[in-house]
Amino acid sequence: MNNILVINSSVSGEASVSQLLVRSAVQRVLEVNPSAMVTYRDLSDAPVPHLTAYTVAGVRGMPETQAELAAQALSNELIDELKAADVVLIGAPMYNFSIPSSLRAWFDHVLRPRVTFAYSKAGVQGLLKGIRVIVIESRGGLYSEGPTKEMDFQEPYLKTLLGFIGITDVTFVHAEKIGSGPEARELAIETAKARLEEVIIDSEQLVI
Ligand SMILES: Cc1cc2nc3c(=O)[nH]c(=O)nc-3n(C[C@H](O)[C@H](O)[C@H](O)COP(=O)(O)O)c2cc1C
């Protein structure tokens, strides 16, 4: 049995390219592996709250107040969901050269000292093991090559966040130039779908 966690973070609903690609990937996975169990977390419909002075101790300290205990309970829930997954599919649009703030709020609850990462004499250690992540990145422009490559604070950031908690088996699939008209959008979607097909078929965690 494979557990798949699907995280969407686009605010664009039905018009979202990342959500369309995530849907198509899940459909394909279920064709090749009908016994896969899929859990959905939509960070746009049901946002994880941003940390505040009243909640941060729930994730980073010793919770005492009701607000801190509620933040810790949510953090526990999100981390348990992540740990239960063999594969995580993340739909991540590029917003202002980085990730949506809703996805950042999710990471703020998941990067937790002594739970998902720890400091040792050897340095920082990610505590999550054996999780494979596929990130679908939708972008208005082109960032995988050319002069705007250095403005990509989305992919290196996601790689760092995931690596920090021990998740190093990460594949990025791009849908770029979404803002360059309908033809470019269609080409980006078809290119990303073809890449996703390769990634799904090659992925032991998904097809076995
Ligand atoms: C708030 C916001 C910020 C955006 N910032 C960027 C950006 O910095 N660079 C870019 O290439 N596209 C940017 N875009 C365009 C989106 O990346 C593009 O529309 C993409 O398809 C969004 O993913 P989605 O279709 O899954 O919602 C932005 C869109 C929004 C709504």
From TrEMBL:
Cofactor requirement: FMN
Annotated GO MF terms: electron transfer activity; FMN binding; oxidoreductase activity, acting on NAD(P)H as acceptor; oxidoreductase activity, acting on NAD(P)H, quinone or similar compound as acceptor
Cofactor: binding comment: Binds 1 FMN per subunit.
Cross-referenced InterPro entries: Flavodoxin_fold (IPR003680), Flavoprotein-like_sf (IPR029039), FMN-dep_NADH:Q_OxRdtase_AzoR1 (IPR050104), NADH:quinone_OxRdtase_FMN_depd (IPR023048)
This protein's record includes keyword NAD: yes
EC number: 1.6.5.-, 1.7.1.17
Top EC class, one word: oxidoreductase
Pfam families: Flavodoxin_2 (PF02525)
Residues involved in FMN binding: S10, S16, V17, S18, M94, Y95, N96, F97, S138, R139, G140, G141
Reactions mediated catalytically: N,N-dimethyl-1,4-phenylenediamine + anthranilate + 2 NAD(+) = 2-(4-dimethylaminophenyl)diazenylbenzoate + 2 NADH + 2 H(+); 2 a quinone + NADH + H(+) = 2 a 1,4-benzosemiquinone + NAD(+)
Keywords: Flavoprotein, FMN, NAD, Oxidoreductase
Record bears the keyword NAD: yes
Flavodoxin-like fold domain sequence ranges: 3-198
Task of the protein: Quinone reductase that provides resistance to thiol-specific stress caused by electrophilic quinones.
Stated family: Belongs to the azoreductase type 1 family.
UniProt subunit comment: Homodimer.
Name of this protein: FMN dependent NADH:quinone oxidoreductase
Organism, as annotated: Halomonas salipaludis
